[in-house]
Write the structure tokens for this entry.
Amino acid sequence: MRQPIIAGNWKMNKTNQEARELAQAIVQGLKADSTFSEVVVCPPFTALESVKDIIEGSNVELGAQNLFWESQGAYTGEISPKMLLTLGCKYVILGHSERRRYFFEDDQIVNRKVKAAIEAGFSPILCIGESLEEREGGKTRAVVSRQLQGALEGLEGEKLKNLVIAYEPIWAIGTGKTATPEQAAEVHSFIRGLLSQLCDEELSEEVRILYGGSVKPENATDLFCQPQIDGGLVGGASLDAESFLKIINSYPIGD
Ligand code: PGA
């Protein structure tokens, strides 16, 4: 049985004080009425330390939104895996479409980051997904396959044991358009099939594949009911404690 994850990607939002308040509200809300086991919040770098103190002792884990592959040195503006580990990060989002688009991260760069993250002991949340043009051109499988294989080049077997994948169709991110549960499930199955070529069957069955792209309280249950979907990577709706908690609580535990 794969343990589901609901992760909040706060992107470039929340000052330190706002981040503290949001984290506090999430922790309190979870204590009050949730049995959901793995919740992850990914604040901006500047708020990691504040959020770490607040989630301590709760079932909320900390994730970063990026890292650089070198461990230290003259790389102005970059953050190393070790810096994030010492701040208590267990997860790190890599290959997000916004990084690919605005910061020109290609599959090779994503691969170096995934390798560094795995080497350092993180669970990378590797994001892959097609654009609208690619979907309409019937290229979804080819794109997802290229991104997955590119990001995991040189990584096989046991090395993939902590990997988490987020299928995020670009056309669904921040647009209010969600992939239908069936569309998502179809790509999730395809991704799992690809994984089974990279590691043994048992391990490939253990990798969590999350869906991301306009997940909201209104559509979360339908998405999470799909057995292929092991949780969600939530952007906009994770910035408000109430909607994030609603999403968490809509996961059909025990079904
Ligand atoms: P969204 O973002 O939920 O705002 O669409 C998801 C993401 O980019 O991870």
